[in-house]
Amino acid sequence: MSISSRFAVGIHILALIEINKDGVSTSDFIAGSVNTNPAVIRKIMGMLKNAGLVKVRPGIAGAQLAKNLSDITLLDVYKAVNVVQEKELFSIHENPNPDCPVGNNIQDAIIPLFENAQTALEKALGHITIEDVVRDLIDKENFENKKRSN
Amino acid sequence: MSISSRFAVGIHILALIEINKDGVSTSDFIAGSVNTNPAVIRKIMGMLKNAGLVKVRPGIAGAQLAKNLSDITLLDVYKAVNVVQEKELFSIHENPNPDCPVGNNIQDAIIPLFENAQTALEKALGHITIEDVVRDLIDKENFENKKRSN
DNA sequence: ATTACATGTAAATATAATTGTTACAGGTAA
DNA sequence: TTACCTGTAACAATTATATTTACATGTAAT
C-alpha cells in the first residue's frame, strides 16, 4: 500500500507555480513538467483551489498561489488532495466477534493507538513548507548547472 | 487509501494468543474471533512466524508467542505483516520532465521529506507494545462485565 | 498404516482505488 | 465568432485487498 502520488504532484504543482511566477502556468504547461495528462492536473488543481491554496478561474489561463509560500505546509497540501481520510490511515477489520473478550474490545483498544501514529505523521508534514521545498529545488538546480559548466 | 487491516488483524492475533494462553489457538479459533476465513489467519500467521513473533508448526494445532509480550511492539507487527514497504509509504509520480528545473529535482527534494514523515509514524508505533494492548483489552472487558452485573 | 485434523500455500474471485485518457460543457478575451 | 482555457464526467487499465476454495503436507492417536 502506498499513499496516492496526488500528494507529490500537488507539491510539484505549487512549487512550479512559484518558480514559473513570471510565466503563465496552464494545466498543459504543468502537465508537461509533471509528465501526465492535463486533466489530471486540473483535477488536483481543483482540490488545491477548494483548499484555498491556489487561485485559478475557468476560461482564464494560468494559476497563482493564494497564500505566501511560507504559509503553505505539506500538511495543507496533503489534506487538500485528500489522500488520507481523517483517522483512517490505518484500516481495522470490521465485525470482530463480540462474544470474545478480544474481539469485543480490539477496535476500541486499537483506534486511539492508530490515531496517535497518524497524528505523528501529520505533525511531521506540518513542519515543512512549500518555501522549504522551493529553496531546495533552486539549490539543487544551481548545483546541477555548476557541475555541467565544469 | 488506507493501510491494510492485516496490521490490525496481526495485533488481534497476538493479543488473542496471549489471552487464550491456557487454550489452543488454532487458525479456526482465531478466525472465529477476528471473524474472517482461517486461510487469512494462516497467511498472516506465517508472516508473524517469519518475523519471529510466533511459534507455529505444520500439523500441530495452536500457536504460541515467540517473545515476551513487552518485547513485541506495534512496529514489529507492522513490519512483520508487510503493510508498508520501506521508504514507500508515500508514492511519487515517476518520470517528471528532466528539462524543467522542478521536474528535474522534485523527486530528490521530496523523498527525504516523505521518509522523515514515515519515520515519525513508525517511531510512534515503536513505543507501544502488545502488552499495552492486552492490558487495555482486559481493563475494557472487566469494565464491560461490571456494567452488565449492575 | 489409516484416520482425523492441523498448517502451508496457491489459485480464483469480487471489490475498490489509482492513474490515465477522451470528450465535452462552459468561461473569457481578442 | 474564434481560439483557448478550465471544470468535470465517463471509461478503461492496472493494481491491491480481502475472501473463498482446494489441496498438499505434517503430526499424532488409534
Biggest sheet: strand arrangement of chain A: 1-2
Largest interface: A-B, 60 and 60 residues
> Architecture of chain A, according to CATH?
Orthogonal Bundle
Sheet bearing the most strands of chain A, described?
2 strands, antiparallel
Shape label of chain A: elongated
SS-based class of chain A: mainly alpha
Strand tally of chain A is: 2
What is the class of chain A in the CATH system? Mainly Alpha
Percent of residues in β-strands of chain A? under 5%
Low-confidence stretches of chain A: none
Total number of distinct structural domains of chain A: 1
- CATH H-tier superfamily of chain A: Winged helix-like DNA-binding domain superfamily/Winged helix DNA-binding domain
Q: Over all CA atoms, what is the radius of gyration of chain A?
A: 20 Å
What is the helical fraction of chain A, as a range of percent?
Answer: 55-70%
Overview of this structure, please?
Chain A has 150 residues and is mainly α. Chain A has one domain: Winged helix-like DNA-binding domain superfamily/Winged helix DNA-binding domain (Arc Repressor Mutant, subunit A, Orthogonal Bundle), CATH 1.10.10.10. Chain A has six helices and two strands, in the order αααββααα. In chain A, strand 1 (54-55) and strand 2 form a beta hairpin. Chain A is elongated, with a radius of gyration of 20 Å.
Provide a quick synopsis of the model.
With 150 residues, chain A is mostly helical. Chain A has 6 helices and 2 strands, in the order H-H-H-E-E-H-H-H. Chain A has a single domain (6-149), classed as Winged helix-like DNA-binding domain superfamily/Winged helix DNA-binding domain (Arc Repressor Mutant, subunit A, Orthogonal Bundle).
